[in-house]
Amino acid sequence: MITRFNQWVTRTLLVAAALLAFSLSFLVCADVIGRVVFNNPVKGTKEIVEISIVIICFLQAGYAIRSGGMLHVDVVTGLLPFRARAALVVLGALLGVFFFALIVWGSLEPFAYAWREGEYEGEGALRVPVWPARLAVLAGSVLAAFNYVLLAIEAALATLTGRPMGAMVDVGGRIH
What we know:
With 176 residues, the chain is mainly alpha-helical. It is 71% helix and 2% strand. It has one domain (2-161).
């Protein structure tokens, strides 16, 4: 139940990130055309792109973890027996939980400040609020840490039982 809901959330956030990236391509094209043809760029493009890139990255983090898309090196681990590989997956997942938990802890105060004080990026014609990016970092990190917890549990069970990580199915339905 939790795994299915997690898969739905990670896929939904992935789609939202893709739609945002797709929309940004039109904004950048309009800015370039406006700058070159009409000598009048779209105001605030730089600020919108800066904020959106952060949002896109953190919306995709949970999916990247569940799908096995995070960076890992198979050269050495491929030579190890199954239980040793699974134990290393547990260790890596616990380090991932720790890393994203630190990001959550470090993001709470900046998010609260951006929300409370109305922090903006940019000056002049367009001021872009910062809180959506700070919220995306916070929520994306919580989801990433949760996905690493799930990965650690699955790998720990595989280590203890000696069975293949068949339960370790990514959101696309592929088995690791």
